[in-house]
Amino acid sequence: MTPAARLQAAIDIIDKIRDGNAAEKALTNWARASRFAGSKDRAAVRDHVFDCLRLWRSAAALGGGETGRARMLGVLRHHGLDEAALFSGQGHGPAVLSDEEAQAGGEPQGFAAWDLPDWLGARFQAGLGDQAEATAQALRSRAAVFLRVNTLKTDLAGAQEVLAEAGIETQPHVLSPTALLVTEGARKVARSEPYLTGLVELQDAASQAVVDEVPVQPGQRVLDYCAGGGGKTLALAARLGGERVFAHDADPRRMSDLPARAERAGANVDRLTAPKGEFDVVLCDVPCSGAGAWRRSPEGKWRLQPEDLQDLTKVQASILQTCQGLVTSGGILAYATCSVLVEENLEQVERFLAQNGGWECLSHRQFLPEDGGDGFFVACLRKG
Ligand SMILES: C[S@@+](CC[C@H](N)C(=O)[O-])C[C@H]1O[C@@H](n2cnc3c(N)ncnc32)[C@H](O)[C@@H]1O
Question: What is the distance between the alpha carbons of residues 58 and 110, in angstroms, rounded to a whole number?
Protein backbone atom coordinates (compact mmCIF):
# COMPACT_ATOMS: atom_id res chain seq x y z
CA MET A 1 0.00 0.00 0.00
CA THR A 2 1.18 3.54 -0.68
CA PRO A 3 1.39 5.99 2.26
CA ALA A 4 -1.71 7.70 0.82
CA ALA A 5 -3.63 4.40 0.63
CA ARG A 6 -2.81 3.71 4.28
CA LEU A 7 -4.14 7.16 5.14
CA GLN A 8 -7.39 6.45 3.24
CA ALA A 9 -7.77 3.15 5.12
CA ALA A 10 -7.37 5.02 8.42
CA ILE A 11 -10.00 7.56 7.30
CA ASP A 12 -12.49 4.74 6.57
CA ILE A 13 -11.79 3.08 9.93
CA ILE A 14 -12.22 6.35 11.82
CA ASP A 15 -15.61 6.77 10.17
CA LYS A 16 -16.56 3.30 11.44
CA ILE A 17 -15.45 4.31 14.94
CA ARG A 18 -17.58 7.46 14.64
CA ASP A 19 -20.52 5.15 13.80
CA GLY A 20 -20.02 3.51 17.21
CA ASN A 21 -17.64 0.63 16.47
CA ALA A 22 -14.83 -0.11 18.92
CA ALA A 23 -11.41 0.74 17.44
CA GLU A 24 -10.03 -2.80 17.74
CA LYS A 25 -13.11 -4.24 16.04
CA ALA A 26 -13.02 -1.67 13.24
CA LEU A 27 -9.32 -2.42 12.67
CA THR A 28 -9.88 -6.19 12.66
CA ASN A 29 -12.80 -5.91 10.23
CA TRP A 30 -10.71 -3.76 7.91
CA ALA A 31 -7.76 -6.17 8.04
CA ARG A 32 -10.06 -9.15 7.25
CA ALA A 33 -11.51 -7.35 4.26
CA SER A 34 -8.07 -6.14 3.06
CA ARG A 35 -6.05 -9.30 2.41
CA PHE A 36 -3.71 -7.26 0.20
CA ALA A 37 -2.45 -5.38 3.28
CA GLY A 38 0.83 -6.73 4.66
CA SER A 39 1.96 -6.54 8.28
CA LYS A 40 3.74 -3.20 7.75
CA ASP A 41 0.58 -1.76 6.17
CA ARG A 42 -1.56 -2.99 9.07
CA ALA A 43 0.87 -1.51 11.60
CA ALA A 44 0.95 1.85 9.77
CA VAL A 45 -2.85 2.04 9.51
CA ARG A 46 -3.19 1.14 13.19
CA ASP A 47 -0.68 3.87 14.12
CA HIS A 48 -2.71 6.47 12.15
CA VAL A 49 -5.95 5.40 13.83
CA PHE A 50 -4.52 5.46 17.35
CA ASP A 51 -2.81 8.78 16.71
CA CYS A 52 -6.15 10.18 15.61
CA LEU A 53 -7.91 8.78 18.71
CA ARG A 54 -5.32 10.43 20.97
CA LEU A 55 -5.78 13.75 19.12
CA TRP A 56 -9.52 13.31 18.48
CA ARG A 57 -10.73 16.73 19.56
CA SER A 58 -7.82 18.89 18.44
CA ALA A 59 -7.66 17.06 15.10
CA ALA A 60 -11.32 17.95 14.43
CA ALA A 61 -10.53 21.60 15.16
CA LEU A 62 -7.38 21.63 13.01
CA GLY A 63 -9.02 19.70 10.17
CA GLY A 64 -12.23 21.76 10.29
CA GLY A 65 -14.73 18.89 10.73
CA GLU A 66 -15.77 15.73 12.54
CA THR A 67 -15.39 13.20 9.71
CA GLY A 68 -12.53 10.74 9.34
CA ARG A 69 -11.25 12.79 6.40
CA ALA A 70 -11.25 16.07 8.32
CA ARG A 71 -9.74 14.46 11.42
CA MET A 72 -6.89 12.79 9.54
CA LEU A 73 -6.25 16.10 7.81
CA GLY A 74 -6.07 17.63 11.31
CA VAL A 75 -3.60 14.91 12.42
CA LEU A 76 -1.33 15.70 9.44
CA ARG A 77 -1.50 19.40 10.29
CA HIS A 78 -0.70 18.63 13.95
CA HIS A 79 2.48 16.86 12.84
CA GLY A 80 3.32 19.55 10.28
CA LEU A 81 3.16 17.03 7.41
CA ASP A 82 2.56 17.89 3.76
CA GLU A 83 -1.21 17.46 3.39
CA ALA A 84 -1.30 18.11 -0.37
CA ALA A 85 1.21 15.28 -0.97
CA LEU A 86 -1.07 12.74 0.76
CA PHE A 87 -4.46 14.16 -0.28
CA SER A 88 -3.38 13.82 -3.90
CA GLY A 89 -6.00 11.46 -5.35
CA GLN A 90 -3.12 9.16 -6.37
CA GLY A 91 -2.28 5.58 -5.39
CA HIS A 92 -5.68 4.76 -3.80
CA GLY A 93 -5.22 7.74 -1.50
CA PRO A 94 -7.74 10.39 -0.42
CA ALA A 95 -9.15 12.74 -3.07
CA VAL A 96 -7.52 16.13 -3.56
CA LEU A 97 -8.64 18.69 -0.94
CA SER A 98 -11.28 21.17 -2.06
CA ASP A 99 -10.47 24.87 -1.58
CA GLU A 100 -12.97 24.89 1.28
CA GLU A 101 -11.23 21.95 3.00
CA ALA A 102 -7.80 23.45 2.43
CA GLN A 103 -8.90 26.63 4.20
CA ALA A 104 -11.05 25.08 6.94
CA GLY A 105 -9.87 24.50 10.48
CA GLY A 106 -8.05 26.48 13.12
CA GLU A 107 -6.10 26.13 16.35
CA PRO A 108 -7.97 24.12 19.01
CA GLN A 109 -9.16 26.17 21.97
CA GLY A 110 -9.60 25.40 25.68
CA PHE A 111 -9.69 21.72 26.62
CA ALA A 112 -9.78 20.81 22.89
CA ALA A 113 -6.08 21.78 22.91
CA TRP A 114 -5.58 19.27 25.78
CA ASP A 115 -7.56 16.61 23.90
CA LEU A 116 -9.90 16.00 26.81
CA PRO A 117 -13.67 16.34 27.14
CA ASP A 118 -14.49 19.50 29.14
CA TRP A 119 -15.61 17.62 32.26
CA LEU A 120 -12.34 15.69 32.39
CA GLY A 121 -10.26 18.79 31.72
CA ALA A 122 -11.89 20.33 34.79
CA ARG A 123 -11.17 17.17 36.86
CA PHE A 124 -7.54 17.20 35.74
CA GLN A 125 -7.22 20.84 36.83
CA ALA A 126 -8.91 20.21 40.18
CA GLY A 127 -6.89 17.09 40.98
CA LEU A 128 -3.51 17.76 39.39
CA GLY A 129 -3.24 21.55 39.70
CA ASP A 130 -0.09 22.84 37.99
CA GLN A 131 0.61 19.41 36.50
CA ALA A 132 -2.76 19.13 34.74
CA GLU A 133 -1.76 20.53 31.37
CA ALA A 134 1.55 18.62 31.17
CA THR A 135 -0.30 15.39 32.01
CA ALA A 136 -2.99 15.99 29.39
CA GLN A 137 -0.33 16.90 26.81
CA ALA A 138 1.70 13.77 27.61
CA LEU A 139 -1.42 11.65 26.94
CA ARG A 140 -1.58 13.08 23.39
CA SER A 141 1.49 11.21 22.17
CA ARG A 142 2.34 7.61 21.74
CA ALA A 143 3.51 5.52 24.73
CA ALA A 144 7.03 4.15 24.86
CA VAL A 145 7.68 0.40 24.94
CA PHE A 146 9.28 -0.89 28.14
CA LEU A 147 10.55 -4.26 29.21
CA ARG A 148 10.91 -5.66 32.72
CA VAL A 149 14.10 -7.61 33.20
CA ASN A 150 13.23 -10.86 34.95
CA THR A 151 15.75 -10.94 37.79
CA LEU A 152 14.91 -14.61 38.39
CA LYS A 153 16.77 -15.36 35.16
CA THR A 154 19.16 -12.53 34.30
CA ASP A 155 20.26 -9.00 35.12
CA LEU A 156 19.97 -5.70 33.27
CA ALA A 157 23.28 -5.93 31.40
CA GLY A 158 22.71 -9.60 30.50
CA ALA A 159 19.24 -8.84 29.15
CA GLN A 160 20.48 -5.86 27.13
CA GLU A 161 23.16 -7.99 25.51
CA VAL A 162 20.82 -10.76 24.32
CA LEU A 163 18.21 -8.23 23.25
CA ALA A 164 20.82 -6.43 21.14
CA GLU A 165 21.70 -9.76 19.48
CA ALA A 166 18.01 -10.01 18.54
CA GLY A 167 18.10 -6.49 17.02
CA ILE A 168 16.38 -4.81 20.00
CA GLU A 169 18.19 -1.79 21.43
CA THR A 170 17.36 -0.69 24.97
CA GLN A 171 18.43 1.64 27.71
CA PRO A 172 17.82 1.61 31.48
CA HIS A 173 15.08 3.91 32.76
CA VAL A 174 14.99 5.96 35.93
CA LEU A 175 11.49 4.80 36.96
CA SER A 176 12.57 1.29 37.98
CA PRO A 177 15.83 -0.64 38.35
CA THR A 178 14.31 -3.47 36.30
CA ALA A 179 12.99 -1.27 33.46
CA LEU A 180 14.47 -1.09 29.97
CA LEU A 181 13.21 1.46 27.46
CA VAL A 182 13.14 -0.03 23.96
CA THR A 183 14.77 2.47 21.61
CA GLU A 184 14.86 0.29 18.48
CA GLY A 185 13.17 -2.91 17.33
CA ALA A 186 10.03 -2.72 19.52
CA ARG A 187 7.98 -4.71 17.00
CA LYS A 188 10.46 -7.60 17.22
CA VAL A 189 10.09 -8.11 20.99
CA ALA A 190 7.14 -10.55 21.07
CA ARG A 191 8.89 -12.99 18.69
CA SER A 192 12.39 -12.61 20.16
CA GLU A 193 14.33 -15.30 22.02
CA PRO A 194 14.79 -13.24 25.25
CA TYR A 195 11.03 -12.67 25.45
CA LEU A 196 10.05 -16.25 24.57
CA THR A 197 12.46 -17.67 27.16
CA GLY A 198 11.23 -15.39 29.96
CA LEU A 199 14.31 -13.17 30.34
CA VAL A 200 12.13 -10.11 29.82
CA GLU A 201 8.43 -9.24 30.05
CA LEU A 202 6.59 -6.43 28.29
CA GLN A 203 5.58 -4.14 31.16
CA ASP A 204 5.30 -0.39 31.51
CA ALA A 205 8.05 1.20 33.64
CA ALA A 206 5.60 2.85 36.06
CA SER A 207 3.76 -0.45 36.47
CA GLN A 208 7.11 -1.91 37.55
CA ALA A 209 7.72 1.07 39.83
CA VAL A 210 4.37 0.41 41.54
CA VAL A 211 5.56 -3.08 42.50
CA ASP A 212 8.93 -1.65 43.61
CA GLU A 213 7.05 0.52 46.11
CA VAL A 214 5.39 -2.48 47.81
CA PRO A 215 7.48 -3.64 50.78
CA VAL A 216 7.72 -7.41 50.28
CA GLN A 217 10.35 -9.82 51.55
CA PRO A 218 11.07 -13.48 50.86
CA GLY A 219 9.24 -15.69 53.34
CA GLN A 220 6.06 -13.60 53.32
CA ARG A 221 2.59 -14.70 52.19
CA VAL A 222 1.80 -12.33 49.33
CA LEU A 223 -1.50 -12.06 47.44
CA ASP A 224 -2.16 -10.18 44.20
CA TYR A 225 -5.94 -9.77 44.60
CA CYS A 226 -6.74 -8.23 41.16
CA ALA A 227 -4.15 -10.18 39.19
CA GLY A 228 -5.67 -9.96 35.69
CA GLY A 229 -3.06 -11.16 33.18
CA GLY A 230 -0.49 -11.29 36.00
CA GLY A 231 1.94 -8.51 35.03
CA LYS A 232 2.34 -7.40 38.65
CA THR A 233 2.09 -10.96 40.00
CA LEU A 234 5.21 -11.92 38.06
CA ALA A 235 7.03 -8.77 39.16
CA LEU A 236 6.14 -9.61 42.78
CA ALA A 237 7.38 -13.19 42.25
CA ALA A 238 10.72 -11.81 41.05
CA ARG A 239 10.91 -9.53 44.12
CA LEU A 240 10.36 -12.63 46.28
CA GLY A 241 13.24 -14.45 44.58
CA GLY A 242 10.95 -17.03 43.00
CA GLU A 243 9.02 -17.97 46.14
CA ARG A 244 5.30 -18.65 45.78
CA VAL A 245 2.91 -15.75 45.15
CA PHE A 246 -0.87 -16.09 45.33
CA ALA A 247 -3.03 -14.62 42.57
CA HIS A 248 -6.77 -13.99 42.46
CA ASP A 249 -9.15 -12.24 40.10
CA ALA A 250 -12.94 -11.89 40.25
CA ASP A 251 -12.90 -13.08 36.64
CA PRO A 252 -10.60 -16.15 36.66
CA ARG A 253 -10.53 -16.20 32.83
CA ARG A 254 -8.38 -13.06 33.01
CA MET A 255 -5.69 -15.25 34.65
CA SER A 256 -5.85 -18.06 32.07
CA ASP A 257 -2.43 -17.23 30.54
CA LEU A 258 -0.80 -16.86 33.93
CA PRO A 259 0.41 -20.50 34.39
CA ALA A 260 2.22 -20.41 31.01
CA ARG A 261 3.63 -16.95 31.70
CA ALA A 262 4.80 -18.03 35.17
CA GLU A 263 6.47 -21.14 33.79
CA ARG A 264 8.28 -19.10 31.14
CA ALA A 265 9.44 -16.67 33.84
CA GLY A 266 10.48 -19.39 36.30
CA ALA A 267 7.97 -18.00 38.83
CA ASN A 268 5.83 -19.90 41.30
CA VAL A 269 2.24 -18.63 41.15
CA ASP A 270 -0.72 -20.22 42.90
CA ARG A 271 -4.11 -19.10 41.58
CA LEU A 272 -6.87 -18.84 44.21
CA THR A 273 -10.57 -18.66 43.41
CA ALA A 274 -11.51 -17.62 46.95
CA PRO A 275 -8.57 -16.37 49.04
CA LYS A 276 -8.89 -17.36 52.70
CA GLY A 277 -6.81 -16.77 55.80
CA GLU A 278 -4.36 -13.93 56.24
CA PHE A 279 -1.55 -12.55 54.11
CA ASP A 280 1.47 -10.40 54.99
CA VAL A 281 0.97 -8.31 51.85
CA VAL A 282 -2.13 -7.89 49.70
CA LEU A 283 -1.84 -5.89 46.49
CA CYS A 284 -5.11 -4.64 44.99
CA ASP A 285 -4.50 -3.22 41.52
CA VAL A 286 -8.14 -2.26 41.16
CA PRO A 287 -10.26 -1.71 38.04
CA CYS A 288 -10.15 2.01 37.23
CA SER A 289 -10.75 4.62 34.54
CA GLY A 290 -7.36 3.78 33.01
CA ALA A 291 -6.73 7.53 32.72
CA GLY A 292 -2.99 7.04 33.20
CA ALA A 293 -2.87 4.69 30.22
CA TRP A 294 -4.91 6.70 27.73
CA ARG A 295 -1.89 6.90 25.41
CA ARG A 296 -2.30 3.16 24.89
CA SER A 297 -6.13 3.07 25.04
CA PRO A 298 -7.14 6.54 23.86
CA GLU A 299 -10.78 5.62 23.26
CA GLY A 300 -11.17 5.57 27.04
CA LYS A 301 -10.92 9.33 27.42
CA TRP A 302 -13.82 9.91 25.02
CA ARG A 303 -15.96 7.04 26.34
CA LEU A 304 -15.65 7.62 30.10
CA GLN A 305 -18.69 9.35 31.63
CA PRO A 306 -18.97 10.96 35.09
CA GLU A 307 -21.34 8.19 36.22
CA ASP A 308 -18.78 5.53 35.15
CA LEU A 309 -16.21 7.19 37.39
CA GLN A 310 -18.69 7.17 40.26
CA ASP A 311 -19.40 3.46 39.74
CA LEU A 312 -15.68 2.67 39.57
CA THR A 313 -14.93 4.46 42.83
CA LYS A 314 -17.65 2.35 44.53
CA VAL A 315 -16.12 -0.90 43.21
CA GLN A 316 -12.64 0.25 44.31
CA ALA A 317 -13.89 1.05 47.84
CA SER A 318 -15.58 -2.32 48.12
CA ILE A 319 -12.41 -4.18 46.98
CA LEU A 320 -10.37 -2.26 49.56
CA GLN A 321 -12.91 -3.25 52.21
CA THR A 322 -12.71 -6.94 51.25
CA CYS A 323 -8.90 -6.89 51.08
CA GLN A 324 -8.40 -5.25 54.48
CA GLY A 325 -9.90 -8.40 56.02
CA LEU A 326 -7.23 -10.54 54.32
CA VAL A 327 -4.26 -8.64 55.79
CA THR A 328 -2.58 -9.94 58.94
CA SER A 329 -1.90 -7.59 61.85
CA GLY A 330 1.20 -5.52 60.99
CA GLY A 331 0.77 -6.48 57.31
CA ILE A 332 0.50 -4.29 54.22
CA LEU A 333 -2.44 -3.44 51.98
CA ALA A 334 -1.11 -1.91 48.74
CA TYR A 335 -3.69 -0.03 46.69
CA ALA A 336 -2.89 0.72 43.05
CA THR A 337 -4.57 2.19 39.96
CA CYS A 338 -3.43 3.16 36.48
CA SER A 339 -5.21 6.47 36.92
CA VAL A 340 -4.24 10.12 37.39
CA LEU A 341 -7.66 11.09 38.80
CA VAL A 342 -7.52 12.03 42.47
CA GLU A 343 -10.96 10.59 43.23
CA GLU A 344 -9.66 7.11 42.35
CA ASN A 345 -6.35 7.63 44.13
CA LEU A 346 -5.55 9.71 47.20
CA GLU A 347 -9.20 10.50 47.94
CA GLN A 348 -10.02 6.80 47.88
CA VAL A 349 -7.20 6.11 50.37
CA GLU A 350 -8.26 8.99 52.62
CA ARG A 351 -11.85 7.70 52.68
CA PHE A 352 -10.61 4.21 53.57
CA LEU A 353 -8.46 5.54 56.43
CA ALA A 354 -11.35 7.66 57.75
CA GLN A 355 -13.68 4.65 57.76
CA ASN A 356 -11.22 2.03 59.08
CA GLY A 357 -9.45 2.67 62.36
CA GLY A 358 -6.02 1.21 63.09
CA TRP A 359 -4.53 1.69 59.62
CA GLU A 360 -1.54 3.86 58.82
CA CYS A 361 -0.49 5.15 55.39
CA LEU A 362 3.22 4.35 55.01
CA SER A 363 3.64 5.91 51.57
CA HIS A 364 1.74 7.05 48.54
CA ARG A 365 3.05 7.98 45.13
CA GLN A 366 1.51 9.31 41.94
CA PHE A 367 3.35 8.51 38.72
CA LEU A 368 2.45 10.79 35.81
CA PRO A 369 2.80 10.06 32.08
CA GLU A 370 5.23 12.96 31.75
CA ASP A 371 7.62 10.90 33.98
CA GLY A 372 7.99 8.56 30.97
CA GLY A 373 5.77 5.61 31.87
CA ASP A 374 1.99 5.40 32.25
CA GLY A 375 0.19 7.30 34.99
CA PHE A 376 -0.10 5.09 38.07
CA PHE A 377 -0.90 5.55 41.75
CA VAL A 378 0.17 3.36 44.65
CA ALA A 379 -0.39 3.65 48.40
CA CYS A 380 0.96 1.26 51.03
CA LEU A 381 -1.18 0.99 54.16
CA ARG A 382 -0.14 -0.86 57.32
CA LYS A 383 -2.62 -2.65 59.56
CA GLY A 384 -2.07 -1.84 63.23
C1 LIG B 1 -6.29 -3.14 36.48
S2 LIG B 1 -6.73 -4.77 36.18
C3 LIG B 1 -5.41 -5.69 36.85
C4 LIG B 1 -4.14 -5.67 36.04
C5 LIG B 1 -3.06 -6.59 36.58
N6 LIG B 1 -2.82 -6.40 37.99
C7 LIG B 1 -1.73 -6.43 35.84
O8 LIG B 1 -0.80 -5.81 36.34
O9 LIG B 1 -1.65 -6.96 34.71
C10 LIG B 1 -8.00 -5.03 37.35
C11 LIG B 1 -8.49 -6.45 37.50
O12 LIG B 1 -9.40 -6.49 38.60
C13 LIG B 1 -10.34 -7.50 38.36
N14 LIG B 1 -11.51 -7.24 39.25
C15 LIG B 1 -12.58 -6.47 39.02
N16 LIG B 1 -13.40 -6.49 40.11
C17 LIG B 1 -12.81 -7.27 41.03
C18 LIG B 1 -13.15 -7.70 42.34
N19 LIG B 1 -14.27 -7.28 42.93
N20 LIG B 1 -12.31 -8.53 42.97
C21 LIG B 1 -11.16 -8.94 42.39
N22 LIG B 1 -10.79 -8.59 41.15
C23 LIG B 1 -11.59 -7.75 40.48
C24 LIG B 1 -10.62 -7.38 36.89
O25 LIG B 1 -11.12 -8.60 36.37
C26 LIG B 1 -9.24 -7.03 36.32
O27 LIG B 1 -8.57 -8.17 35.85
Answer: 10
